[in-house]
Each structure stands twice: as structure tokens, then as C-alpha cells.
């Protein structure tokens, strides 16, 4: 089940950020098959996949509206059904969830690796291109949705930008972060964070070997 451990760990981290001592993980909120229930919302030239908690509208007073999840997907983007379902799972946990289209509608296609040039892909989607999209999504959450406290969850490509978002000023960035198998994450990006972060990496992850994980920790 894709992302199961990552999501479970992050939900726990969210609760630490909110100081909810009575929280008990409810794995029934996770979905890896089915039909996504969120919607794509355009905002200042950027598409956002937005998933709302059940029985909560996008307007009106609600104490839980001040908490939100910024989900930064892998190279399959918000076009991936699994990524949309993952965002919906965060929403079922009670959090407004927003995932930006970091690939401009042209993510890596799911399936065979044949024809996919990873080096060229990451080069064309570097920080100078991706940072503004992440910041724009944060602006949407704060100004359009009224979210005050943001936790970010990022996977592979998106994991790096969780750390970069944690390095932004508090009123412009996120307060807590979780990254699974982050790619191209630099030491300077780790040192710059201003809030708590959790990192999940598989034992045999060739993208972050044991020595590198020790340094990161």
C-alpha cells in the first residue's frame, strides 16, 4: 500500500504540531483505490488540487479551518489518482488539503521508465521554477482558505520542497514538515529549516544511503 507508513507517521506529526494529546491514529481514513473527491482549483495561473474535510464547506467559521496540509507530490503530480486519493486521506483526517501542480500539467507518466530522462526532468523543475509554485500554494491556503497553521507532506520530488518551505519566514512558510524519500535534498536546505521535520527513507534507498541519512539526522 503506497505511502501507508509515510501517511501514518505524518498524521502523528500533525498532532504533535497541534498538541493534541488525545490523538489516536485512525488508519481507516487512508484510501489507495477509488474515485478522488477533491477538485482542481485555478489560482493565479497555478492549478491546485483541493480536498476539504467531510461536512466542512470552504466558507464560514470553523476552528479546524485554521489547520491545513500542503501536500507536495512526486513526479507523477496531482494528475495521479493515487496522489489525489492521498490528499483526500488527509482531508478525511480533518484538514484542508492543498496540492499544487508542480509539473505544469506535464508530470511523468505512470508505468514504464522507458523514455523518462530523470536528469533532464529535475533540471527543468528546479528550485527557481518550483519554489514560486509552492509559495503560491501557501498564499492560497492562508489568504483564500483562512488556514493559519500549515504542515507539509512531500514525497520524492516534493520532499525536497518540504524542507525549503520550512526555511521560509513563519508567515510565508509552513510550521512542520514530513518528507518521504526526498530527492536532491541539500545540506543547506536541511540547516535552514525553522520548524520540526520528520524524514522517512527505506533501508535500501539508493537515493539516500545510510551515511547520508545519518548526516541528515
UniProtKB/TrEMBL annotation:
Where in the numbering of this chain does the Dienelactone hydrolase domain appear? 61-206
The domain of life is Eukaryota
Q: Does the keyword Ribonucleoprotein apply?
A: no
A UniProt-annotated Pfam family: DLH
Q: Does the keyword Aminoacyl-tRNA synthetase apply?
A: no
Q: Which residues form the signal peptide?
A: 1-19
What keywords is this UniProt entry annotated with? Hydrolase, Signal
Tell me, what is one Gene Ontology molecular-function annotation carried by this entry? Answer: hydrolase activity
InterPro entries in the record: AB_hydrolase_fold, Dienelactn_hydro
Question: What protein does this entry describe?
Answer: Dienelactone hydrolase
Q: From which source organism is this entry?
A: Colletotrichum lupini
